[in-house]
Amino acid sequence: MDIMEVFKARGSCxxxxxxxxxxxxxxxxxxxxxxxxxxxxxxxxxFVVVEDREKIAEITAHALDTRDWxxxxxxxxxxxxxxxxxxGDARALIIVGANPKKIGMGAYLGETEAHTxxxxxxxxxxxxAAAAKGLGSIWFTMYKADVLAELVGMAEGFQxxxxxxxxxxxxxxxxxxxxxxxxxxxxx
Length: 188
Ligand SMILES: Cc1cc2nc3c(=O)[nH]c(=O)nc-3n(C[C@H](O)[C@H](O)[C@H](O)COP(=O)(O)O)c2cc1C
Known about the structure:
By secondary structure, this protein is an alpha+beta fold. The chain is built from 5 helices and 3 strands, in the order ααβαβααβ.
């Protein structure tokens, strides 16, 4: 697939089929993630792959609780209708953590977030690799990071950057429209 086709094929997937996804395929996604750039090549990421159905159900229950908590806390009623239960249908959940000590030379420039930038590049690589292989995923963040870290036993000192459900999509995946880069760019 041409790289532009891959970008266009990727979209947030919110419905998963029960077709199995083998570990080798998940390994390829993680390998793609590890090819991402990071400050001083410190590779700040760490992954936990959840395949256990009971653990996935537990994480899904936490995501739904978080969604309801967010709706109440923010007073934004529409949040309660925002779906989150589909993560329970995914074949696996890739949880990505990042180490805030791995910020390269950024510390000398007042930079405190370089680990999140590296982890973001890593996550995007995983999402694109999944799209190229016909898999669905989404960068999902409706959880309390400390609770999720505890639920999956994330390594000490790593902050959770995202939860990526992995599975074959049920139905079409479509993306909302994008702004035209010409309206967002100045050439000087
Ligand atoms: C940092 C980040 C957090 C996100 N968190 C959620 C989430 O918790 N739930 C959700 O349904 N979508 C989430 N999304 C997906 C966005 O809604 C989605 O990427 C955006 O609407 C564009 O749609 P597309 O991914 O289909 O192109 C998140 C995306 C990013 C980058």
